[in-house]
Amino acid sequence: MAQSNKDVHHVVEFSILLKTGxxxxxxxxxxxxxxxxxxxxxxxxxxxAFLIAGVKAALVMMFFMGLKYDSLMNRFIFALGFFxxxxxxxxxxxxxxxxxxxxxxx
Amino acid sequence: xxxxxxxxxHYAHHFKNADHEFVTSKQGVWLFMVTEILMxxxxxxxxxxxxxxxxDMFAEGAKQLDWRMGFTNTLVLIxxxxxxxxxxxxxxxxxxxxxxxxxxxTLLCAAIFMVIKYFEYVHKFHLxxxxxxxxxxxxxxxxxxxxxxxxxFYYCMTGMHGxxxxxxxxxxxxxxxxxxxxxxxxxxYTPVEGxxxxxxxxxxxWIFLFPLLYLVG
Lengths: 106, 217
Description:
Low-confidence stretches of chain A: 1-5
Number of strands of chain A: 0
Number of helices of chain B: 7
Oligomer: heterodimer
Structural class of chain A: mainly alpha
Distance between the termini of chain A: 55 Å
Structural class of chain B: mainly alpha
Helix content of chain B: over 70%
Number of strands of chain B: 0
Strand content of chain A: under 5%
Mean pLDDT of chain A: 89
Strand content of chain B: under 5%
Radius of gyration of chain B: 21 Å
Radius of gyration of chain A: 20 Å
CATH superfamily of chain B: Cytochrome c oxidase, subunit III, four-helix bundle
Number of helices of chain A: 4
CATH architecture of chain B: Up-down Bundle
CATH topology of chain B: Four Helix Bundle (Hemerythrin (Met), subunit A)
Largest sheet of chain B: none
Mean pLDDT of chain B: 94
Order of helices and strands of chain A: HHHH
CATH class of chain B: Mainly Alpha
Shape of chain B: elongated
Largest interface: A-B, 47 and 51 residues
Largest sheet of chain A: none
């Protein structure tokens, strides 16, 4: 694998780690706020909750796991996991939601 | 400035140099992380599909969970992820003593997480909320006859996650001891990096489990 060795041991700055931690705490409180507001959000409630979770996950992956500074190969490998998860979800969902009931006369 | 005596690390002979060994080991950990995503992912997909089939039953199940417990555990785990990342940061800077305290804090947070989880489980058992067929619908006064399905998911997902926390704790103890022994320095800290990535994925999974189980019902 071609990779320059100059940034193999990238040190994530303390201030970046601290900001990430504070942002994650803030977003957790935001999740709870959205939960208490779920009467107003209605069907959008779960979507808001998972959007916030998605942002939190991105922060953890980029700065705590250091993927922002990692090699393209490692980022690709990790993204592959989510791709196959999406494939699993899509195919399973298609199967379940396109089934014809047994009582059908088709 | 290193606060402990650094032991020399010799890379294995089939690597070109120490960096080559580090990059290769790290890539192996990332491949392992893909299997972790797919293992938990299967449970998530099953949860979404059954949730779509029985939304009211899942709502009844989610109401039985105490969001305060899940919320506290989320903060505890995020903090532990922060201290883990900080531990690696300090080892990279050669400040091993500070790294030791970071790893100890991470370990403490993991223990707090498991204690809270223990109280949650015990409380659910006390009320009779068992998984699957072991949930006595009449005894717990459930509105839906298949409420056991929700608790099946709850115990499988949080249980699998809990096992990961316990394994993570054992791994942190291992790198903690090695750090105190002076095995790590800015040019060799591969095990801490790997354990760190594993610990962050434990946090990552909980970030999704919390809204899924406790809030979205």
